[in-house]
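Progress report, Aim 2. The chain analyzed during this reporting quarter is listed below.
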Amino acid sequence: MKENKGFTLVELLVVIAIIALLMAVLMPALNKARAQAQLIVCRNNLKNYGLAATMYLETHNDKFPFPLTCIYSRATFTDEHPWECRWHDAGVVPDGPLWPYLSEKGVHCCPTFAGIAKTRGTNHPLHIAGIPIKPSFSYSMNGRLSAGDSISPLADNLGQMIGLGQVRHPARVLFFTEENIWIIHRTNGDPISLSLYALNDMYFGTVKYGNGDCIASFHKANDSKLNTGVSNVLFIDGHVDEEKPYDEKDKILGYSDKSMKLTFGVDVLIHGINY
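Predicted structure tokens for the chain:
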């Protein structure tokens, strides 16, 4: 009678070691592939925003919706749903003028952002305890577009683009962008000031010297260096591109006006747009 022979302990350890080695080799490649897939999904989300915005403009005489209320109307601004937590407050029901063109499309949140929010959401500088972190959106609209509304009229502001006809450089002007849920400021130990505000509402407002909102920096960046990556940006002409919030020259200056330049489509310092 032939006796069945099993694996010895040494053989099992060798097999386990080989599997561990293969996992160590494959994991970086798998993580990179997953990050690339999430990046593509995010870009497609923004392209859907571009298509929706185009349809909105066609039916509203080429006038832009007010960024602050484009997805969530003024009626949703209540003490029960504070603006600081709008990006993750599942109790806020979207009902803004742009919503009918985007409803039920599942394109409002970048998958990379959603993953970061799970572990870092409560670190938001204005986080209010008690509101669960369930990201509803991760994109915001250029605050230099539209005339505002009766509560926040913006038409008289220098550089405000009320309608499509006032956008001189559609391929350069930011329409929608991603934002971080943290600020990038020298008080955080970073060598550069980029933002004083993190993502909260859908209004993307920039100020000179990195003292406003800033495009995101978490794509193509390691988890320990999320301030060194890029953001997906949708432009008025409908194309989506990757943009870095700053470069090496900006690090020397200590601040970056890159986000501000994107909202106007021109170098605001050269063209004398000040506020």
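The chain is about 25% helix and 5% strand. The chain has a mean pLDDT of 88. These observations will guide the mutagenesis work planned for the next reporting period.
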